[in-house]
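Side project, low priority. Logging it here so it doesn't get lost.
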Amino acid sequence: MGRMPNKRNAESLSIIIMKLNRQEINELKKLLSDKKYRINDVLDNLFKKMNISHEVDMFIDGAADLNSKTAGIGGVIIKNGKEIFSFSEYLDNATNNEAEYTALIEGLKYVIKLNILCINVYSDSELIVKQINGEYKVKNPRMKALYQKAMNLLDELEHWTIKHVLREKNGVADHLAKSGRKKGEK
């Protein structure tokens, strides 16, 4: 039978495993951005860690054609300006928003397999970005399931951001998603 940790060890353990959600992190960043709240080295170092620019970017996109009932996803992972991985896959009978979420989910699975734990995600779907960032509610039951899968995967990462980009800035992922969709055309 294992020993119970003493109070000091239990406090240390709770600090190590504590996770903050995106909203809590954003509020803490806002607070610590004012130097008067960084009253010691610990808080100063925390602020610096929270503002590290991460070198790994993932651009994702989904494409759907309701007439042919085909959809596709695509994404590209870039480190230090060089492509390290890309994906293009066919989806059967999905809406564009479902394809966008599926691109995020599959991209996150690849990132985790590659042992990348800090990532900046870029998508041209304003809806997906704002739902993941907590700015919009997720109302549709099918979208809620995809949203929850994405959030569960994001919880496995140490640090992540997701930002909206214009379609012109998402050309590679857009091309990969359209290529994935075309794999299902008859």
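Brief comment: The chain has two domains: 19-52, 56-182.
Revisit when time allows.
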